[in-house]
Structure formats: C-alpha cells, structure tokens
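JOB MANIFEST
job_type = single_chain_structure
chain_count = 1
residues = 253
[input]
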Amino acid sequence: MSKNYLNSPGLSQANQKVVLSAWARSLQLEESALHRANDDATTVRRFEIAAEKDVADWDPNTATFIQLFNISILFAPTWFLDAARDIDDEALGLESTMLELGYAADARSLGEETIFYAEDIPFYDDARLNVTSQSRDARRLESACPPDDTAAMPLDSLDHFFTISAFTQNTEPIAGAGYDVFSSTVGQLAVLVAAEHRTKGYGTFMLARAAEECMFDGLIPQWVTPVGNEVGEKMAHDVGFLLSGFRISVTFA
C-alpha cells in the first residue's frame, strides 16, 4: 500500500477528526487546519513543526515524519525542515531519505512504524481468566519476558494496565496490556505476553481487551507496531484495527 493518502474508508470521518485533533493538540497546531487538509485535496497536506518550539513530550533532538489519513506532519529542527521541503511524502517516508537528510548530524534511525486505529472490536470471553491490576503482577510478568520488551515502557508505568492468569493458586501471570492516554482522546495500547505463552493467541486477546477498555473510557484505541512486524500487524487485523498511517523517526548525535 502506498504511504500517501491513507484515508481509511473504515474509520469514520468523525473519528478521523478526533484522531487528528489529538495530534494537533500534541504539537500545538490548529485542529481545524488538519481537518481541512484531510478533507480537501487542494489544501496544504504537509505540516511543519520546528523542533526548536517548546512542545511537551517531543524530543527536540529528533526528526519525526508522520503520514496519517490524508495529511503528513514533519517535526524536526529548522535545518532539517528546510532540507526536506522539496522532497515528496513518498520519498520522505523512507528511512534511507531521513538518514540521508540527517547525515551531517550523525542521524540514527529509531525505526519505521505503522499506526492503526479501531472503532469496533470483536468480543472475547475472559470468564476463565483471572484479571488483576496489581503492580506486583505486572512486575512478575515483566520478569518472564526478555528485558528488551519492557525496558522502554514497563507495563505498570502505563496510565491503565492489567494482567491475566489462570484461576489456580499461585499461578504466574500469562499476559498483560494497558494504555497511556494521548492528548485526552486517544489510548496508546501496549501488550506483553510471557515468553513461554507466546504464539497461543494471548497477544491478540489482550489487544482486543485493552482496546475495549479504551472505548469504555471514551478513547479511540491506537496500536503502533514496527513496519514488517508480522505478528503485530496480524494482531491488529484480527482485532479489527484499521491501517491509518506510518511514522519514521531519526535522532541526532
């Protein structure tokens, strides 16, 4: 699929506006400007935000290019914005292009990612599972996973999280999930499955359950997974998430 013009027919226009508003607030952009650009092909489609601007939760030592529905956003230092201005979105969305633009600043890739959203999910029965929201259970689960899985974002550091285990005495947690609230209206999901229980469907179950919790709280679930991660993409497809965008980031020395 082309990374340009990712307007998803399955995600309602109303929810596209909610998602775009969340990104706009995060980057201190005018919400209506993103809405108009998403709806009207004759308006500006790429929005530039200088990293020198004080934007909370955005690292000024990075360049991030996001393609979302029918618009794109580039957050980067001014010198990077200037260098990228005449490059079309299809080329700029490539890791090689971002690294080339940042070569003089010793750019290092933070990876390419796919962005999914959902507004309807299938029902999964968890009647045979014990569900808890205790930090001690989250830490027990993390100890049963490779360190790289939890180094960046421990499960119990999320705004909302829970784990599951079997209904037997002293059973170790099987899997966990949760979400951080992004810009008031979007829930950024995370899923963790104990190493010995992987490939058994627990990841898909937890993604669906976390998405359901998001919706109960009035949030739109967001699932971000590395480009080419077949497991993460299959989980998204099985739960009913819709491919809505791409993100590529580089950091500078």
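[summary]
The first strand starts at residue 46 and ends at 50.
Residues 1-5 have pLDDT under 50 and may be disordered.
exit_status = 0
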